[in-house]
Amino acid sequence: MKCLIVIATSSACNNELDSIRQALRTHRIDTKEIEWVSQEDFLVQVGTPSAEKFDLVYLAAHADMYGFGESGGFSLHKWDDLANAICGSSCMLPGATLFLGCCRGGMKTVALSILKGCDQIDYICGPLWNTKGTKLIQAFNSFAECKFAENLEPVAIKERMTSAAGQHFSCFDRQELESEVAMLRQIGNIQWQLDQIIASQNSVVEVVNALAKTLNNAICEPCPQPTPTTASEKTVADSPQ
Prior knowledge:
Helices cover 53% and strands 19% of the residues. It is an alpha/beta fold and 241 residues long. Strand 4 (62-63) and strand 5 form a beta hairpin. Helix 1 (14-26) runs parallel beside helix 5, helix 2 (39-46) packs parallel to helix 3 (79-89) and helix 5 runs antiparallel to helix 6. The chain is elongated and about 105 Å long.
């Protein structure tokens, strides 16, 4: 088995990562580590498609419901970027798990955003709220035992992680969220179609406005004025023939 560790913050806690590595070694999971720079760089480092396939992808980062990266919202990347990178590399095996080792990684909003962007992710686990390195270590140790030693179902893994860390962790199964993912995709398609219609309408409005302006300029051009008649010309015109 193999795990891909993606480090997306310069302030990643060494103690936390060492503990994650140790837990993986305990369960005889080989690891590969890369630094997240961008979606494009991920594809270069991992491959398109990846020559290696992973049973687990662990993201070490700061995050919120909108994206991940550095703390304080600095240099945040969208969750869609991560989903597209994983899908573009085809690096995850069927049944593999994406473990989001970051604050808010267990939010349903985050899971739906990622699952919507990539069909190759079957499970997503992470903390529901803000967390600390010690909590992540406790939860991940429990996760690794449940997943690799006992092969438990996601609901049981969630409960064990929550108990071990003393705070709520989530573990989402794609099959349970598939209907919501499909609905989000449908909404996205409808929004795209509306955007195209609005763009087309704007183009038509621009053309009509241009024609109206041209017509208005033509109507408003001053008509030629008759040349004034001089007094001598008027006398000649009035003299009897």
